Amino acid sequence: MEKIIKSRTVWTIALVAIMGAWQAISPFLDPSLFTVVNTVLLGVAGYFRINPKAGFSNE
Known about the structure:
Number of strands: 0
Largest sheet: none
Structural class: mainly alpha
Number of helices: 3
Strand content: under 5%
């Protein structure tokens, strides 16, 4: 179980699911909130892309 939690693939799938859900509900939210959360999600995605091994096992 620990290996699954540390897997980049699992976290990537989770992030894609969160971003998909966010895009689905975003039309119903305040534009300023959309901008803030979108920036945070893109920052997290960029972090995993730039530092793929930071804090996670790549095994």
